[in-house]
Amino acid sequence: MFSLKDKIAVVTGACGLLGKEHCKALADAGAHVIVADTDEHNCKDFAAQLGKGHMGVKMDVTDLRSLFSAREQVLEKYKTIDILVNNAAINDMFENPLHAAEQSKFENYPLSLWEKSWSVNVTGVFLCSQVLGSVMAENKRGSIINIASTYGIVAPDQNIYKDKTGKQQFHKSVSYPVTKGAVISFTKFLASYWGDKNVRVNTLSPGGVENNQDEYFKTNYSNRTLLKRMAAPSDYRGAVVFLASDASSYMTGANLVVDGGWTAI
Questions:
Q1: Gap between the Cα atoms of 127 and 53, Å rounded
Q2: Which of residues 101 and 13 earns the better pLDDT score?
Q3: Domain encompassing residue 131
Q4: Could you give the 3-state DSSP secondary structure of residue 38?
Q5: Cα 23–Cα 24–Cα 29 angle in degrees, nearest 5
Q6: How many CB atoms lie within 10 A of CB 206?
Q7: Would you say 39 and 15 are in contact if contact means Cβ atoms under 8 Å apart?
Q8: pTM of the complete model
Q9: What average pLDDT does this structure show over 184-205?
C-alpha cells in the first residue's frame, strides 16, 4: 500500500535541502517525479540524477504563466498528475549577520520581507493547488501534500537563538510562523472543498533540520526536543511517501507532525 508505482508526482522547491529528499523518497517508491524549481538547469540535472522516468521543469510558484507552462509540459509527457508536494517556501536570510538580531525584531521587520514571504509561502501554495491540483479534481483522484512547520502550530522559542553568553543572535521573524499557520488552514479548506472529488489534502509539519548551523543553536534546539536531536534531511521521507500513497487513503485535512517531540511539551 506504500507503492507509488507509475504515479506522477510534482514537487515544488525541489532543489532545496528537503525538496531533494522528497523527490528521492517518491522516486524510490516508484513514482515518476517532476523536479520543479526556479533554476531549469538544476531541475534537469537533479532529475537526471534520480534516474530514468523523471523530469526537470522550471517553475516559479508565484507566476501563473510559469505554472501553466509547467502543467502543459507535464501533461504532454505524462498525461496526468497524481501527487503534488507544495514544498517551495522562503525563510528569512539577512545579508549582514551582525545586524540580523536587530533586523529580525518584530518592531523592525521590513514590510517587503513580509510580502515576499506571503507571496511564496501562501500564494504559491494557493496557485500551485489551483493550477496543478485542478487536474486531480478533474480526474477525481490525487494527493496534495502541503509542507508547513512546527512554527505553524506553536510560537517560536526565541531563546534557542541565544548563544552561550545569552546574547540574542537572531529572532525567528514573524513571517515564517504566520505563513506556515496559513498553510495549515488552507489545507483544511481544500480538503473540504475537494473531498467529493477524491482529492486528499494533508499537511506535513516538519521540525528543524540540521544543516551546518552554529553549534550553540544545534545544542539549544536539540535540548528542546524529546529525542534530543535535530532532524536529518532524510527523516521526512517516510512521512511523504505515507501521505502520497494509499497507506493514508482515509486521511485528509490532517496535519502530520514529525518533529522529534518539539510540540509535545
A1: 26
A2: 13
A3: 8-93+115-155+174-212+232-264
A4: coil
A5: 100
A6: 22
A7: yes
A8: 0.96
A9: 98
